[in-house]
Design goal:
Blueprint (H helix, E strand, L loop, with lengths): L8 H16 L6 H8 L3 H15 L29 H24 L35 E7 L2 E5 H12 L3 E4 L6 H11 L10 H24 L14 H14 L4 E6 L4 H7 L5 H8 L21 E7 L2 E7 L9 H16 L7 E8 H6 L1 H9 L10 E7 L8 H4 L16 E5 L3 H18 L3 E6 L17 H9 L3 H12 L4 H22 L35 H11 L10 H16 L5 H14 L4 E5 L14 E2 L6 E2 L12 E5 L5 H13 L4 E5 L10 H8 L2 H5 L6 E5 L14 H6 L7 E3 L4 H13 L6 E5 L25 E2 L13 E5 L3 H12 L4 E6 L1 E3 L3 H9 L5 E9 L5 H15 L6 E6 L10 H16 L26
Parallel strand pairs: 4-6, 4-7, 7-8, 8-10, 9-10, 11-14, 11-15, 15-16, 16-18, 17-18, 20-21, 20-23, 23-24
Antiparallel strand pairs: 1-2, 3-9, 5-6, 12-13, 17-22, 19-21
Length: 976
């Protein structure tokens, strides 16, 4: 409703016209009116300007035109209009404007005086803008009727009634922040939904019984665990039990509004309660885990995880409507599960082709300190309305314990609320006293209705407390003695509510107690059953994962069918090099597309970007969707990809990969926001929910993945081992020492290699476009999924030697973990040295060897560092029985693969009895920074390491951690 809606009809027109005249010439109106207008503040003047527009826009029969003061005549019941003085109008108008400003202040600041804290720790002083006296009213005005035209659901009301209604609506146990919202429809919707008696929390007796039962289950479960496993860490929900009925309301009301699937994410606080009382995990299963039994079948390998990190899935029915729930596993890194959940939701929406985003939703449950402190929260909000990452809005619930471990809010945030970050996307925020469970449930209902109506985020801040310390063995009184003295004396939420219902006559004391005792008895039965409980199956290969399996044999022994017909390759090649008629293509890109057509025609010189596009295109034709996300990845950081073409006249976009055939899968390429942690987590979540798609994330430079290290460590590298959750996500990390300085050289692949174990992922550095092509196709052509970490090239994107013939993509071709020597050298037995390497440095070695005319040094490329291709490498080394062995890399010795390959090569040499007793190192010395910032130094270092690898005798090679940096004076390339 407009702020000026109380000024309608003759008064509105008359006063607004007077104000318009005054605005142009203050002397054109009576002095009394001039004084009145001059005394108005900016907000009031804006109201009058708004009134003028509103009045003039009404239908003719709704407005009585007024020429001057004498014509202002409110009608009586008999239709006659007695005279009304200008003073009467002015006073009535002033009262209405003052009342409106008071109402607006309550809408803006009423939450500052709301009764939100169950403990009353921080008294909320009166706010002057919420005092009617600040608007010129006195006590004598409290009972004078004021026209407010259905604002607050009342046509006319006394000031006393208005203030009481405002206090009830905005300063009770719910405080609403919504006036920061710029969308007038959203703001008006909330006003209609919360103002007026008809919009207050009113529950039927059946509804009150249901709330009591949910509270009894939430509290009873925590008490039972405390009794049976005293002091055991479980991060209980005590103090925040209203969470459970709130979630139930969101699910039930959401199902009525079209919701069919909900992905939940939360940290450890209250997770066990949600697992059992929302997700309906059997109590006996959880008690079995407390007794030390695994959460997975004995035949399923993996490290497992603590109970309060685990997830699960379930189907719930609400009034005959089925809703699928999945609770995502989460590490102790608070809030890092948020983007994973959002990615899963986006994948599920895509699977349903739900462009309205009504059927699947994210429900994220946060802690107050983490919500305010963790940057990934902001990144997720920043993604929320973007085309490539939108999920139709998230319902956020903050379990606001008013403390973070031992840190109170005054030390953990700068703003008044932990939820202030949500204002960046103009999300409405409902602050609710957690001890008023009906208010919490009511706010939850409004939240899900708002999300389904506007498809945007909404926040429910449930202000409560934490009955124990950070965990059950912690002593909180060390740091918060006053708070925990109050908590010890404070009744539980269930006690408060059961007393309320007894007082209302809804239940008797005996009935309320029986709900709790019956539930306790049920838990005792489940506890006994837990002693013989057995997990009969894991749920990790169900739903969209049905038909896929775990890797059970040796990875190196597997060869996947990744080749395609030459006809299909040419079809895709033609499509990616074509544009529609009339499309104004950039001339430089046109030359690139012409070059691609020539590649397809000649079958030679397929470069890196074309090889990638052929992989994407052939998968799309075969029905496999491809999703590529990252900063500037549509064009590519190095202007190599150009998978999105922009018309040079109207900037319309054309994506050639989506125009190969009429019946093909969809290619989605997204230029992401400037985020690594949030976006990588999102794509990981997408890959978890959609195993049938090729999902890729590309770093602008490889070292930018540093900003997403938590996602890499906690999810991508270890998620399958901890939680039995596979992912086929591909990480593309531009890497290579090319003189660009410390920040744009290394993708830090030593970190990925250090994390290799149990076939958890693949780490590769390819040297040919064809091998890259096969590796990408292999990701979705196997019957299992593993993450793929690729060190992608920069200078090699346009290197004349880094090309492949079309035949290497066609029938009979395959992925090769190790690429052998390809040049004609001396006889194998006469090879004096074998140089092993990976990635770009191969071409430096290759060109320098040719330049020097060396023919007794073989170069072998290890394309896949992990899983380690031991048997393949042994076969290659057996060809050169008399050769010494050198590992060459361009990264410093303490970085890159050296520490990873050193012991593995030693093992191979020892087990095979090879003449070479050890692998020598040729490369940069150990360094704190990945690369030099001076191009001259880079060139010298690169020349030195190449020379070391090819010609320097082993006994003259420096130790990897020495300080030798000068070129040697070797002249004879055949020097032994």
């Amino acid at each position: 409703m407009s702020q000026a809606s109380f000024l309608t009809g003759a008064n509105a027109t008359y006063v607004s016209e007077l104000y318009a005249r005054y605005s142009q010439n203050p002397g054109s109106v009576d002095s009394s009116w001039a004084q009145f207008f001059a005394a108005l503040d900016d907000d009031s003047r804006a109201v009058l300007a708004e009134v003028k527009g509103a009045a003039w826009n009404r239908q003719p029969n709704q407005v009585i035109g007024v020429a001057d003061e004498s014509e202002v005549k409110p009608k009586k019941a008999d239709g006659k209009a007695p005279a009304a003085s200008a003073e009467d109008i002015r006073r009535a108008t002033l009262d209405s404007i003052r009342a409106l400003m008071l109402i607006r202040s309550y809408r803006v600041r009423g939450h500052l005086q709301a009764n939100l804290d169950p403990l009353g720790l921080q008294p909320r002083p009166p706010h002057p803008e919420l005092d009617y006296r600040s608007y010129g009213f006195t006590e004598a005005d409290l009972d004078r009727p004021i026209f407010i035209d259905n604002v607050l659901g009342m046509e006319t009301a006394s000031l006393r009634t208005i203030v009481a209604a405002l206090q009830k609506t905005y300063c009770g146990t719910t405080g609403v922040e919504f006036m920061h919202i710029q969308d007038p429809d959203q703001k008006a919707w909330i006003q209609r939904r919360i103002e007026g008696d008809q919009n207050q929390a009113v529950f039927t007796e059946r509804g009150k019984h249901a709330i009591l039962e949910r509270l009894s289950e939430a509290e009873g479960f925590e008490k039972f665990l405390q009794m049976k496993y005293t002091g055991t860490k479980r991060f209980g929900l005590e103090g925040g039990e209203s969470l459970i009925p709130a979630i139930e309301q969101i699910l039930k009301r959401g199902s009525q509004l079209g919701l069919r699937e909900v992905v939940l994410g939360m940290a450890h606080r209250g997770r066990l309660n949600v697992l059992t009382n929302v997700m309906k995990k059997p109590y006996s299963a959880l008690f079995s885990e407390f007794q030390g039994n695994p959460a997975t079948p004995e035949d399923v390998q993996g490290s497992g995880d603590v109970k309060y990190h685990l997830g699960t899935s379930a189907d719930r029915e609400f009034d005959g409507i089925n809703v699928h729930l999945s609770l995502t596993a989460n590490p102790s890194h608070l809030e890092i599960g948020n983007p994973v959940v959002l990615g899963k939701v986006r994948a599920k929406l895509d699977q349903r082709n739900d462009i309205n985003k009504s059927s699947v939703m994210a429900l994220l449950i946060h802690g107050d300190a983490a919500f305010a402190g963790q940057g990934v929260v902001m990144e997720c909000f920043a993604m929320s309305q973007l085309e490539g990452y939108g999920t139709g809005g998230t319902v956020h619930i903050v379990i606001n314990n008013q403390i973070g471990f031992t840190t109170t809010p005054r030390y953990s945030r700068s703003g008044p609320y932990c939820t202030d970050v949500a204002k960046m996307v103009q999300a409405p925020i409902f602050h609710v006293n957690g001890d008023d469970v009906e208010a919490v449930v009511h706010a939850a209902r409004i939240a899900i209705e708002f999300r389904q109506e506007f498809k945007t985020d909404v926040v429910l801040d449930m202000v409560c407390y934490r009955r124990h310390g950070h965990n059950e063995s912690d002593e909180p009184a060390f740091t918060q003695p006053r708070m925990y003295k109050m908590i010890a004396d404070h009744p539980t939420t269930r006690t408060i509510y059961s007393n309320q219902l007894v007082g209302e006559g809804v239940v008797t004391r005996e009935q309320a107690d029986k709900v709790a005792t019956d539930f306790h008895a049920h838990l005792e039965q489940e506890f006994q059953a837990a002693k013989s409980y057995k997990v009969n199956k894991a749920d990790w290969l169900e739903g969209k994962w049905a038909g896929l399996g775990a890797l059970t044999d040796e990875e190196e022994m597997r060869d996947e069918n990744t080749d395609v017909s030459l006809d299909l390759l040419r079809e895709v090649g033609k499509a990616i090099a074509s544009t529609p008629e009339g499309f104004n293509l950039n001339r430089k890109i046109a030359r690139q597309l012409d070059a691609k057509l020539e590649m397809m025609k000649s079958g030679q010189g397929i470069d890196w970007a074309t090889g990638e596009a052929l992989a994407f295109g052939t998968l799309l034709v075969e029905g496999t969707p491809v999703r590529l996300s990252g900063q500037d990845c549509g064009r590519g950081t190095f202007s190599q990809r150009h998978s999105v073409l922009n018309d040079q006249e109207d900037e319309s976009r054309y994506v050639p990969l989506n125009h190969i055939r009429s019946q093909q899968a969809h290619y989605e390429v997204i230029d992401s926001l400037l985020s690594e942690e949030g976006v990588l987590g999102f794509e990981y979540g997408y890959s978890m929910a959609e195993p049938s798609a090729l999902t890729l994330w590309e770093g602008q430079f490889g070292d930018f993945a540093n900003g997403a290290q938590v996602v890499i460590d906690q999810f991508i590298s270890s998620g399958e081992s901890k939680w039995l959750r596979m992912s086929g996500l591909v990480m593309l990390l531009p890497h290579g020492m090319e003189g660009q300085g410390p920040e744009h050289s290394s993708a830090r692949w030593e970190r990925y290699l250090q994390g290799c174990a149990e076939d958890n992922w693949q780490v590769c550095n390819f040297t040919t476009p064809a091998n890259y092509f096969h590796a990408l196709r292999r990701q979705v052509r196997r019957n299992y999924r593993k993450p793929l970490i690729v060190m992608t090239p920069k200078s090699l994107l346009r290197h004349k030697l880094c090309v492949s013939p079309l035949s290497d993509f066609g029938p009979g071709s395959r992925f090769r973990r190790v690429l052998p020597e390809t040049e004609k050298l001396v006889a194998d037995k006469k090879i004096r040295r074998v140089v092993l390497c990976s990635g770009k440095v191969y071409y430096d070695l290759f060109e320098e060897r040719a330049k020097r005319g060396i023919d007794d040094v073989a170069i072998i490329r290890i394309e896949q560092l992990y899983p380690w291709p031991k048997e393949t490498l042994i076969k290659q080394l057996e060809r050169y029985p008399n050769a010494e062995l050198v590992w060459c890399q361009e990264e410093p010795a303490n970085m890159g693969p050296w520490s990873f390959v050193d012991r593995r090569l030693h093992y191979i040499l020892r087990e095979t009895g090879h003449k070479a007793l050890f692998a020598a190192y040729a490369g940069r010395n150990a360094a704190a920074a990945p690369a030099t910032g001076l191009h001259k130094n880079h060139v010298a270092e690169q020349a030195l390491l190449v020379e070391q690898a090819l010609v320097v005798a082993l006994d003259e090679l420096p130790q990897p951690f020495s300080r030798i940096t000068k070129l040697s004076k070797v002249q004879n390339p055949k020097r032994a």
